[in-house]
Design goal:
The structure holds 2 protein chains of 2 kinds.
Chain A: E1 2-4, H1 12-22, E2 26-31, H2 40-46, E3 55-57, H3 62-65, H4 69-84, E4 88-93, H5 95-100, H6 104-109, E5 117-119, H7 129-145, E6 165-171, H8 178-191, E7 195-201, H9 206-210, E8 217-220, H10 223-237, H11 249-263, H12 278-283, E9 294-299, H13 301-314, E10 318-324, H14 330-339, E11 344-346, H15 350-360, E12 364-367, H16 369-378, E13 381-384, H17 403-415, H18 421-429, H19 468-474, E14 480-481, H20 483-491, H21 494-510, E15 515-516, H22 518-528
Parallel strand pairs in A: 2-3, 2-4, 4-5, 6-7, 6-8, 9-10, 9-12, 10-11, 12-13, 14-15
Chain B: H1 2-5, E1 23-26, H2 39-45, E2 49-55, H3 57-66, E3 77-81, H4 84-87, H5 93-107, E4 113-118, H6 120-124, H7 129-139, E5 144-149, H8 159-168, E6 181-185, H9 190-203, E7 208-211, E8 226-230, H10 236-244, E9 248-249, H11 257-271, H12 276-301, E10 305-308, H13 315-326, E11 329-335, H14 344-347, E12 355-359, H15 362-372, E13 376-379, H16 381-389, E14 394-396, H17 398-401, H18 411-427
Helix pairs in contact in B: 8-10, 11-12, 11-13, 12-18
Classes of the chains: A alpha/beta, B alpha/beta.
Chain lengths: ~525, ~425
Amino acid sequence: MKLTVWTYEGPPHVGAMRVATAMTDVHYVLHAPQGDTYADLLFTMIERRGKRPPVTYTTFQARDLGSDTAELFMEAARDAYARFKPAAMLVGASCTAELIQDDPGGLALTLNLPCPVLPLELPSYMRRENWGASETFYRLVRGLAGPHAPAPGEARAERRRGPPRCNILGGTALGFRHRDDIKEIKRLLARLGIEVVVSAPLDASTADITRMGEADFNVVLYPEIGEEAARWLEKNFGQPRTRTVPIGVGATRDFVREVAALAGVDPAPALDDEDLRQPWWARSVDSNYLTGKRVFVFGDATHAVAAARVAVEEMGFELVGLGAYNREFARTVRETAQRYGVEALISDDYLEVEAAIEAAAPELVLGTQMERHIAKRLGIGCAVISAPVHVEDFPARFAPQMGYEGANVLFDTWVHPLVMGLEEHLLGMFREDFEFNNEAGPSHLGAHKPSPAPVTASEPEPALAVQADDTAETEDAAAIWRDDALAELKKIPFFVRGKARRNAETFAAQSGAQVITLETLYDAKAHFGR
Amino acid sequence: MSACSAPAPSAALAPSGMRDIPVLRERGQREVFCGLTGIMWLHRKIQDAFFLIVGSRTCAHLMQSAAGVMIFAEPRFATAIIEERDLAGMADANEELDRVAAQVLARRPDIKTLFLVGSCPSEVIKMDLSRAAARLDAAHANVRVLAYSGSGIETTFTEGEDACLEALVPELPQDTSGETSLLVVGALADVVEDQFTRLFQALGIGPVRFLPARTSSDLPPVGPNTRYLLAQPFLGRTGAALDDRGAQRIAAPFPLGARGTEAWLRAAAEVWAIDDARFETVVAAPRARAERALAGHRAAFTGRSVFFFPDSQLEIPLARFLYEELGAQLIEVGTPYLHRGHLDRELARLPAGVQLSEGQHVDSQLDRCRAARPDLTVCGLGLANPLEAEGLSTKWAIELVFTPIHGFEQAGDLAELFTRPLRRRDLLRVG
């Protein structure tokens, strides 16, 4: 049993729902008790979809358990076909139905429905949402495209003449910016003269899936969801796949070269973009203040790894932490962490992530909606770079993370939570201004609190939600702070205070001092520089 | 104004069972929350309680998704997620639960009551949470440990609160004072609780206590001299448990809208034999305020047709409010469960020929709703946007559970929740 306050991923059947909902003509019959229908609102509310997800829940109750839940499932599957007439049906169980072992797959096959039926085995007590999405997509591709694969040992049919063709894999419903990423990447591929056969599962039909073998290669945008299917396609259709995820300027250029090589075309037309502004924005003098900002990066492995590279190479930040919640992709995170000299945090324990962020004392967190909670509590700026998503991660405007426009979006989004350059200087010079003081936060953000009065009791959670500053300044028993040093520490602007505190304590520990005085504080400043 | 604000005394209303309104009972897919969702408001209402769900990742995911928002603080609830090794018998589930409970209590030393909340998986694998609660209660001094079920196979949405309060009833101290006291049952917004306290005090009704109280260490005493008034319509099991303790229910409609609130207060006033003049003196001003607040909404809502999908069991009292006080036309009133006993005074006030439905077959119900094309559809979050996209105005039902709607001072706010979607629709000039 594992104590969980918040969870980064839903159960695997929610992953299956993301695939079913992404597609245009698939229906998912889920053996599940009442209440599991909550998952519908992820799509109708968070993503603002104007259609119910194509999911039928059998809705068994306690009194059904003694009788025939299997019959209930069969009836639901029959009715769902009659009502929705899907081109393919997915069947499976949620966590509770898994325990009663009715075998939805076997039951559905006995119904002889006039459409392909794909049974899903998604072990709820072992696996999670991304895995569930990946497995579902893989089952769909294997089940629908499989019959068109060349027999083992047989060569692929002669490639069709004309422009090179690819599939785009991995976009789903409820994906973090999938809608916009796919649009941006399609535009990029078009500039290289590459045609897209199928983009799936998002907006694909079952007929599209059957045609996936027609492409020359596969572009895997979201490995967490698309890689398993891509591997199968590679093996059975001889389609190579991309490895680079085009997030950031450098990664997008690498991606263009990789795709161009796979397609046998010249990468040059897509190595730059007249609308790419990020490089100049990062080089312009006003961005100097971004130099060496301490950032902590956490998310799904793909987005975290990409964000680490952008943070270091394209923003000039200092990476002080890197982690991911999906263990399945831990290896790439560990490799990247090693490259940037930090230790990788592979955990889906929200409390552990919170502790790691607090210990690293970053000035900016690039994370998920969970890290936004953490950063808010610690009084640190945060930009969201990865699922799990919230309603605000589905903006009305076009806001991809991938490609050149994605690079522009990253710059704007990451800089926004920070205290701007000149404001940072003024805060440093006039620390006790009643209106623009240390505690006020960036003045361009809504959370700016100019009142010098102590924080009022408007926070509805009274108990243990400790204020960041209290923890930071009283919790540590290792070093004793003299009052004058502590008072001086408080004069340091909030966005660098954590770092100053850590430096002073590290310096004290290294020099064997038991007590931190004003002198220690400034010695440490000189020692570590800024 | 006075003509429509003076209802017949409750004693003169049709007694229960007289109104035999036909009910369409359906089974099929239910688009409703499970009882775990009640933790959303219970963990804020009872400030020294912690709710530990013993369940799956689905339960944890539901909790953070259900309210449509994530709460920006460490909540007083969490999930002990059952893992493969617990099911395979590699780990003793009881030992694991004890370990997790200890972890929670160590992290939150301010917690005085720990609820172990059963879920679908914990019930299917037959984990005995009552025994676990007794064991943990003995092991942790100063913390009361109780268990209840919020599982979807047993409970629908607000029935989670019913189960939680039912678990609290045996813990209530015996009232040995010999004095007749009033117990108001059902979680209310703090502000509403304060308003009712003042009204009862002015009426001379008391002592008045609330279940749940704001702190779990402040449990109201109960006994044969306790008269209880239900503030919420979904408390069937809690009512039965209170009856077992000798308490007696005061039959009343629910305190929604000006008339509902007045009738609710009057039912208590009759038990305390408060004379009409005093009742009128106390109630006149807030009732007039409520009527004033409702007037504008009534003009906007009269004749509008409304369709309720089942959600919280608040549907019937709300439908009565919309019909009686805003002049709405009721097409169908769905409820997840119809407790005829507790709702007798509500049912008696519904118009003849109203279609009630209990349980759900969501696809059939959607067919009926689309065919009727109501002016306003009250439904859950999973259905609201899809219906809006089809051109139907909707009110998300969950907002009615998360907003202070009871009592005179909130009557206007309650009406506004229903008129806002229609007003917004008229306001927007984008296609």
